[in-house]
Design a protein that fits this description.
The complex is a heterodimer. By secondary structure, chain A is mainly α. Chain A is 76% helix and 1% strand. The chains are: A mainly alpha, B mainly alpha.
């Protein structure tokens, strides 16, 4: 008797239990998804909150002031902001053409047996910790530039009008130019691997039709591959830009940590990330700390805009592919 | 006359092509040259300074020689804790994206936010954890360091889980569901099993990524000259020790920094290679 009741009720019980378990499972994974959503907003808000004292004290002047004086408690973000933008710009000027060349080589020119290993090597190099780039910059590249390259620039390009202002100064080896170069080398693997992947999405028929019409390899790359992938290529470049803007360790070593505005690329400067990394543990007052966190907030907003633009442009290619 | 023009045009196009190809090869050589130089520097400086004391002794006082045992242990503890914290949340969120919100607006938004989190500067995540953990606790701690690293692990796991689950054929879900298996069981016992190696790759890549992260640890775990396994105290870790030693004026510290950097680089490279092999084997197995 007893046994019969259980066997009748068992499936019903199990259905209810399964439905309950399904609901809680769904609830748990939804919570995790929302957590991802919240954490980005929380990161922005917490830094805004941490930097409120600086924003309140200095107002909009925080963005335009060139002061950075811990003794007199005066802080302005202009010098680090300019430093971040300039070093990232130099990095992009170096990295974009080189990455395009590498991606073109790996997708169109290289013999097929070479594509896999070189492509894999480039991707592995993208994983090397950035602090290694910084140490190399400080111990190897900076002395080399100070000895062989910067004196020549100072002597030969320094006296020229207009252009000369950017290339004069004492050849310390540390400064905007070195930082930009290290950053550029660092983002080359990133940008070129995105470009390579994007180039590989171009339908073979499209390229083959162009070849059949007698196009040269360069014409196929420039007039077929590039227009087809334009938005994604720009997206990849922006991804690298986001990386260069927010990079800390690679530039902290070689920027020279000087809160001074100088047109010359040979002179030490500072960037947002380097300022925070260098001075955070030395910040001895609430306002000082708050100013550093406020700098972090500025960096967050700038990189957010750049990265959001990058993702939107990369999504456009996906849509075209029908994913 | 006409053929002359055509010939000249042809020659010009050929020349342009030749120029572009040469520049492209030059760019590849240029890029690989710097990267090889950096790798060579890390290896040659590192091997020269490598010795057994690195793994058996504590970080020395200024100017003295010693090892980085406490830093290695601290890094291992924090990285493992970060993986333990970040992986389950990441897998759950990735499951939500692939199984529950795949074609919904909220799914697109979360994917977008996750992608931004994935490439957000790590220094920003460090400051975030500083304000929510360190500032509240009143002091730096290994726990805060692990939480900061977990925020770097999270988006990597979300991304790989989402991608790997979406690769699982729909028929598999339908077959299991048609047998009357509840969805949570389908997900945990069928889908996770099918995408296990992909998710494992994500975990390995995330570990490789946090191994060299320096900036977020500067504001959270800071550093500790002494041995500690107490998560509530500041904790030594390899990247911050390297940062501090490399920028110091002491030669012994600098050599130690290079040795540490070498070990870190090798570890990261080996992890990435293993991760790719796992993925490759999976791909070959599926075909």
């Amino acid at each position: 008797m007893n046994a019969i009741t259980t066997s009748i009720h068992a499936p019903k019980d199990r259905n209810a239990r399964d439905a309950r378990a399904d609901r809680s499972f769904r609830w748990v994974v939804t919570a995790a998804g929302v957590f991802v959503l919240i954490s980005l907003a929380a990161a922005a808000l917490s830094m805004l909150w941490g930097g409120r004292e600086a924003f309140q004290t200095f107002g909009w002047g925080f963005f335009t002031s060139t002061d950075w004086d811990p003794v007199q408690q005066k802080f302005g973000a202009f010098v680090p902001i300019v430093g971040t933008l300039v070093s990232a710009a130099i990095a992009m000027i170096i990295a974009v053409p080189v990455s395009f060349g590498i991606a073109l080589y790996l997708t169109e020119i290289a013999p097929s047996w070479l594509r896999m290993p070189v492509g894999a090597a480039v991707e592995l190099l993208a994983g090397i910790p950035s602090i290694i780039y910084g140490m190399w910059g400080l111990f190897v590249l900076a002395p080399f530039l100070a000895e062989h390259v910067y004196p020549w620039l100072d002597e030969n390009i320094g006296p020229l009008p207009l252009l000369g202002r950017f290339f004069s100064g004492p050849p310390l080896g540390l400064g905007m130019g070195t930082a930009g170069l290290v950053l550029g080398i660092m983002v080359i693997p990133f940008i070129s691997s995105v470009m390579r992947e994007v180039f590989l999405t171009v339908p073979t028929q499209l390229k083959e039709s162009a070849y059949a019409l007698g196009s040269t390899t360069f014409e196929v790359a420039w007039d077929v591959v590039l227009p087809y992938t334009r938005s994604a290529v720009i997206g990849g470049i922006f991804l690298g830009l986001g990386r260069a803007l927010g990079e800390t360790m690679a530039v902290t070593f070689v920027l020279g940590n000087a809160h001074r505005l100088s047109a010359s690329l040979l002179e030490p400067g500072n960037s947002i990330a380097a300022t925070i990394a260098n001075e955070f543990t030395e910040a001895d007052s609430q306002l000082y700390l708050s100013s550093l966190i406020a700098l972090g907030f500025v960096l967050f907003i700038v990189t957010f805009v750049v990265l959001a633009a990058a993702r939107l442009m990369l999504m456009q290619l996906n849509r075209r592919e029908g994913n | 006359m006409a053929s002359n023009v055509a010939n000249r045009l042809y020659a010009r196009r050929r020349f342009k092509n030749w120029l572009a190809m040469t520049l492209s090869v030059a760019a590849t050589v240029f890029g690989l040259f710097w990267l090889a130089w950096i790798l060579w520097t890390a290896v040659s400086y590192g091997i020269n300074n490598l010795n057994l004391a690195l793994f058996t002794q504590m970080t020395p006082p200024p100017g003295d020689s010693g090892g980085m045992l406490n830093a290695f242990v601290g890094s291992a503890i924090m990285s493992l804790l970060a993986i333990v914290l970040g992986t389950p949340v990441g897998i759950a969120a990735g499951t939500y994206l692939a199984e529950y919100a795949n074609y919904r607006k909220i799914g697109t938004v979360i994917r977008f936010v996750n992608d931004i989190l994935l490439s957000a500067p790590s220094i920003v995540l460090g400051l975030f954890v500083y304000t929510i953990v360190v500032a509240q606790m009143g002091h730096f701690s290994g726990l805060a360091g692990a939480i900061a690293l977990a925020f770097i692990v999270l988006p990597v796991i979300v991304r790989t889980t989402d991608e790997m689950l979406r690769l699982v054929p729909t028929q598999m879900r339908e077959a299991a569901l048609s047998l009357g298996v509840p969805q949570w069981k389908v997900t945990t016992q069928v889908l996770y099993r099918a995408s296990m190696s992909g998710i494992l790759t994500g975990v390995l890549l995330a570990l490789a990524r946090i191994t060299g992260e320096t900036a977020p640890l500067l504001f959270t775990a800071l550093n500790n000259q002494y041995w500690t396994t107490n998560l509530l105290e500041p904790m030594a870790n390899v990247p911050v020790v390297i940062f501090q030693y490399a920028l110091s004026p002491y030669e012994a510290w600098q050599s130690l920094g290079w040795a540490g950097a070498f070990v870190m680089t090798i570890f990261v490279l080996v992890l990435s290679v293993i991760a790719r092999l796992v993925l490759l084997r999976n791909k070959l197995g599926n075909n």
